[in-house]
Amino acid sequence: MEVVRYLNNKGYRTYLSGQNVWGACDFSVVNNYQYVIHLGHALPPNIFRIISNNFRVRRRGGSGDVIIIEVENGPTVLFSAIYYEPKPELLSRARDVLNDLVKSGINPFIAYSLPYKLYAHEIAEMLNAPMAPDPITGCFIQFSIPNTVLFISSGYFYPLTFKFLRPQTTVYLFDVFRGTLENVDTVYRRYLAMKVKAIQDFNNAKLVGIAISRKPGQYRPDLVEALINRLRRLGKDFVIIDLNEVSPDYVNNLPVDAVVNTACPRIGIDDLDRFMKPVVNAGDVLKVNSLDLNNLLVW
Q: pTM of the prediction?
């Protein structure tokens, strides 16, 4: 709202998007806007590759906090970072909680999602601990995953990325606002149980929907042919379903027994307890062994 007000006061006609925006893959390409300002998400290379496959785009220079891409016959899109400003009282509480972790002999690697970058820097300096060179997203980590991670954030979405990509990594989540520290392994195991059940229920399905999303960084038509061939070999009927967002509001009403999700792979992990029918990811279906859970983010 502050950005919209600022730009309107400068004489620009500015609109606030009323749509859900879950990540950089979600940006708008509506061509009647000259610029789209996308706030608060990193643009990982895997998402940029998908965007480039779906549109003719040119990436322009910018600072580390702003990435600019130009979409042919579309808008110029600015991906701009937003950071939480570290509060002294929260850092003081962090010192008290995290010193106990270090005293227990744990030598953590500090990682973070984009909005928590400044907090992560402060905590890494406080603990004299190594820090990730870049923020992570929910589907991509662009550095080698260490054995022990201290993740600076709130909520489980981002720290679980490490477990989905490398289950043997120990991941501690430090919630800077609540001042709590916890090992995310229990939450990870609950997600695994839901994933195994979804795959088993999918195996019993007769009519399967292949759901594609039209979001710029999630549209994967290249997966459809391989999925069709795989479903035919499994003896399943199928229908291709064109969606913008693969969400329970849509999926629960589809006249199919199960859904294969080709959009964000986190849909087929994090949201399983919200679906009334089995939802699996394209990667689950195309694997030789669908119950190989060593890398749940195969896309």
A: 0.91
